[in-house]
Amino acid sequence: MAHGAEESGWKNRDVIDILGFTKNELLDLFEETDKFVEQGSDFGEPLRHKIVATAFFEPSTRTRLSFSSAALRLGAKVIDLSAEVSSLMKGESFADTIRMLEAYSDLIVVRHPSEGAALFASEISSKPVVNGGDGSQHHPTQAMLDVYTVNKLKGGVDGLTYALVGDIKYARTATSFLYALTKFNPRRVYAVCPEALRPRAEVLKRLEGLGLRVELGLELEDIIGELDVVYATRIQKERFPDQSEYEKVKGSYRLARTVMEKAKRECIILHPLPRVEELPYELDSTPHAAYFKQAAWGVPLRMALLKLILGG
Ligand code: CP
Fold first, then answer.
1. What pTM was estimated for this model as a whole?
2. pLDDT for 141-175, tens place per residue?
3. Are 220 and 165 in contact (CB under 8 A)?
4. What pLDDT, in 10s, does the model give residues 269-304?
5. Where is carbamoyl phosphate annotated to bind (predicted)?
6. Which terminus of the chain has a smaller tally of CB atoms within 10 A, N or C?
């Protein structure tokens, strides 16, 4: 705990949104993550008496499996609620389902399509609840991972120029990343997207209140040369209230190789994944591609988080 945060502040803590964490707490988390990255294997099973529950009411590969992998690597057991074969199908409420997970486990990771679902679960459960994504709102552990990746690959988060590219309106990863940047001092932050996918007015207002100005209305080609980090997101088809609105922006942007060729060699591309057409496979072999490293670090970062919350 080198940055001043008390370790006890993590114990049994809910993780609902990234704004609830201080910069020092994030740096402490990164330091703990680094230890697991360096250690590589044989972690001594510090959580061998713990049970982690994963309850995902929306599809997931990375968040669900990296939490499971992190728990198992620390010696914890994992139970998984598969919504489609659970008593939810018989009409059981979300609240009662959380009460059962509270009784059966020591920590609940929940993903839900409704904004506020994780907060609601945390109000019901006496056991810590980790938000694995709620609607278009928050994805705090992804934001922790994204900032960790920047910190690790760029040697810091401050003083860099960032462009978020794609769906900044519905992608909770993009919103959470912007919220995370309010804890640091970026040089400039751009949102490059069609007008229909700009950050929501209430999000921009909140960011502004927290001292982060997001510059809108520019083309990637015009700013690519000054960027240190490109954060790309998929257009979140499933979140559009009106599919005809999705059709209007579908395929409206793509991180073209010809554009990335004009970037600084050290400019990194992050993407929370999954990707569809916005991030061409041909970029995978360029020095800019950092997204698979980013996804892989999801395990040590979530190990550090579980250990801080459940360990001690
Ligand atoms: N980044 C992310 O949340 O991926 P999954 O939807 O696969 O969990």
1. 0.95
2. 999 999 999 999 999 999 999 999 999 999 999 99
3. yes
4. 999 999 998 999 999 999 999 999 999 999 999 999
5. 62-63, 111, 139, 142, 273-274
6. C
Rounded-to-integer distance, Cα 94 and Cα 99, Å: 9
For the domain made up of 140-295, give the CATH fold: Rossmann fold (3.40.50)
Known binding residue 62? Answer is: yes
CB of 145 closer than 6 angstroms to any ligand 1 atom: no
Q: Is 62 in the pocket of ligand 1 (CB under 6 A)?
A: yes
Are both 5-135+298-310 and 140-295 of the same fold? yes
Which one of the listed residues 23, 50, 111, 138 is annotated catalytic?
111
pLDDT tens digits for range 181-216: 999 999 999 999 989 899 999 999 999 999 999 999
Q: What percent of the chain has pLDDT over 90?
A: 85
Cα(2) to centroid(ligand 1), Å: 30
pLDDT at 1: 46
Residue nearest to atom 6 of ligand 1 (CA): 60
Q: Buried b vs exposed e over 172-182: b needs ≥16 C-beta within 10 Å? A: bbbbbbbbbbb
What are the domain boundaries of the chain? Answer: 5-135+298-310, 140-295
Q: From the alpha carbon of 66, which atom of ligand 1 is closest? A: 8
| 254 confidence band (pLDDT: 50, 70, 90) | confident
